[in-house]
């Protein structure tokens, strides 16, 4: 019998299917080794911006969709899909309700620890909200940074060195980036407090977190481009931030399981080069 992580809720965000940098094989492995009552897909699951430019769609990306549909159909999992800024085309059609699948702008998650406001978080990004063209310019710059980072880590791997994230280093050291993350967290926790919630779940900034900000429990599920992180809610109401490098040690690939999802993708842990 396959070793599985059984939890009440799984929260993912920022998978960015349709891009070269999306770690679809890894997130597929994570989903195939989890069972949950509710799956929250918190925005930017499909990257519509990149697909309209020079989209990169693989079998592993299709496999992700099939895994989610299987959870809906055969596992009786409730799926909540929240609009992000890269899949903002959905905004014109919200809300949508298809039995166990709901596509919404924001959502209230009822937890034993209280009510949690769930939203992608781009509502607090002034550039994304009011200057869409500038947001696209920033996205082009980020994609370029990821390409440089990928090439650099190929060289590091050749030298026998571990993976190093250029964008994470920039976010951690550049004053404006650190200030942006801090402001984002403050604004989004204030909104949760104003909505009468004891916690908030978000994504958008690709910075995973599980912490208290005053009396508000702040959860950010990170991304599946660099961080490779998710949030799970256990049946006792406890939340946990999961890193894929830790997860794959406990739930490794089974060679008898038919290969990695689509049979062609090779697993690349978050601490290794791609």
Tell me briefly what this model is.
With 274 residues, the chain is α/β, with parallel strands linked by helices.
Identify the notable features of this structure and list them briefly.
12 strands, Purple Acid Phosphatase, chain A, domain 2, seven-stranded mixed beta sheet, 274 residues, alpha/beta, five-stranded mixed beta sheet, 36% helix, disordered C terminus, 8 helices
Describe the structure.
- The protein has one domain: 4-Layer Sandwich (Purple Acid Phosphatase, chain A, domain 2).
- Helix content is 36%, strand content 23%.
- It has helices at 24-32, 48-54, 59-73, 126-130, 132-158, 166-173, 175-194, 244-250; strands at residues 5-12, 34-42, 78-82, 96-98, 101-104, 107-111, 114-118, 199-202, 209-213, 216-220, 229-233, 239-243.
- The longest helix is centred in the middle third of the chain and has 27 residues, at 132-158.
- It is globular, with a radius of gyration of 18 Å.
- It starts with a strand and ends in a 24-residue tail after the last helix.
- The model is unreliable at 126-138 and 256-274 (pLDDT under 50).
What is the CATH class?
Alpha Beta
- Ends distance: 31 Å
Helix content: 25-40%
CATH fold label: Purple Acid Phosphatase, chain A, domain 2
What is the topology, as strand order, of the major beta sheet? 4-5-3-2-1-11-12
SSE order, one letter for each helix or strand: EHEHHEEEEEHHHHEEEEEH
The shape, in one word, is globular
Q: Determine the mean pLDDT.
A: 80
**Topology, number of strands:** 12
